[in-house]
Write a structure and sequence with these properties.
Shape: elongated
Strand content: under 5%
Number of helices: 3
Distance between the termini: 17 Å
Order of helices and strands: HHH
Helix content: 55-70%
Structural class: mainly alpha
Radius of gyration: 13 Å
Largest sheet: none
Number of strands: 0
Number of domains: 1
Length: 64
Amino acid sequence: MSKNMASWDRAIRIVLGIIFLALAIVKGGSWIILGIVGIVFLITSAIGVCPLYSLLGFKTLKEE
């Protein structure tokens, strides 16, 4: 898979991923679903590929 996420998109996902994980840890219960979303955000930002973007044919990364 080729990268489809710009650096600003990755940075936003990292921040949101950390916030979502922190909320899941502090609140517990059904907030764990938000924690899972946070983990997905962190993984996709680390690899630079969003599978949903690939399915929809969407890219935030500009062609060089």
